[in-house]
Amino acid sequence: MSVLDTVRRVPPFVWVLLVGVSLIAAIVLLKPTPEPRPPKPLPQARATVVIAQPQTLAVNVYAQGSVEPRRQIDVVTQVAGTLTEVSPQFVSGGFFAKGATLAQIDPRDYQVAVARAKATLVEAQKVLATERGQARQVQREWKDLGNSDANDLFLRKPQIAAAEAQVEAAKAGLMQAELNLERTNITLPFAARVSATYSDLGQYLNGGGRIATVYDAAAALVRLPLTDLQASLIDLPLAFGKPPQQLPDVTLRGVVAGQPYEWQGKVMRTEAGLDPQSRLYYAVVEIPDPFDPVKNKLPLLMGMYVTADISGKPIEQVIHLPKSVIFRRDKVYLLDAENRVQEQTVKILRMDDTHVWFTGQISAGQQIVLERQGYLIPGTQVETQLFETPQTSVPQIVAPQTESGAAQP
Prior knowledge:
It is a single chain. By secondary structure, the chain is an alpha+beta fold. It has four domains: 47-57 and 314-393, conserved putative lor/sdh protein from methanococcus maripaludis s2 fold; 61-68 and 218-310, Beta Barrel (Elongation Factor Tu (Ef-tu), domain 3); 71-106 and 185-216, CATH 2.40.50.100; 108-183, Helix Hairpins (Orthogonal Bundle), CATH 1.10.287. The protein is 23% helix and 33% strand. The chain has helices at 3-9, 12-30, 108-145, 157-183, 228-232, and strands at residues 45-51, 55-58, 61-69, 72-76, 81-86, 95-96, 101-105, 185-187, 192-197, 204-205, 210-216, 219-226, 249-256, 259-270, 281-288, 305-310, 314-322, 331-335, 341-345, 347-351, 355-359, 367-369, 382-386. The strands form five sheets. It has a six-stranded antiparallel barrel. It has a five-stranded mixed beta sheet with strand order 19-18-22-1-23, with no helix packed on it. α3 (108-145) packs antiparallel against α4. The longest helix has 38 residues, at 108-145. The protein is rod-shaped. The model is unreliable at 391-409 (pLDDT under 50).
């Protein structure tokens, strides 16, 4: 059998298989060997940072409260009678100087009582003079008789004592009548503003009747609730009185008839104890002359809601930065010498809409991550970009003090 016949007898699928195997072997043997390449490095995280600059700062405290009068009283009549005169200022909102007349009760009945009391006094003085004259006469008679032993009744000592007591009673009666007459003129012991009136001209009043409610116009008060942290930032007069120059200054801000305005006051005292429910301190701010147009262009009205900016005391190692450095309430991210992220817990002293004041274990010159802390993980090495803090963003720096205690310029 020839070779050709043998080839013809091979099934076609065998030829297909041989061709396929040959192609696969050629591909495997002839493919180029790949050259190894190093992996591309991942892009490094970037972070905007600010430089920590701990300083001695006086951190002000903000609080809110309502304006109250320093004292408020009900004006009542001490004698009965008809109101025959009332002042034009005897209306809600009226002002009265110290000792000015609010209203006048009809004084005629009390003038009559004074006249009668004077007559009673004169009669008592006459009786006393008569008794003393008779006593001297009796003493001379006993001396003429040569007997010095006489009892007190014969010498009229009890009669003189009774007459002297009548004179004193008559003087007291006259004093009471004059006092009642004086009380028909209703005045105030301090400069005041009328809050409400309850009587008017021609009305008959019994003794003890309320005619008005007034409050002291010489000063106003604002009670400010403070947390324990806020109280620690202020030099509060917690127990003992301090000289006025050492009391914390307060700037109050409010709106009167659509116009914002500021008033100046001082924290004069704190209330006797903490509020048992809220555990808050209450600082009492006094604002002198709230209605004086010379000192204040706009009046400080009672019941007005105000915000207060209380001057703080100097605190060391305070850092003042944009608010965005804080995340998760009291955490910041610091960078070490190799720009690796480290988490640090700080103590927040004060925070407003744009800035934060805090203290912590942070050295001067350390870098603090400014924002987007959620994209970073502690231990991550970052590429930094410095954020320049404006000079105007760090107010309230306390000037260094000389040995004498005076602040240097």
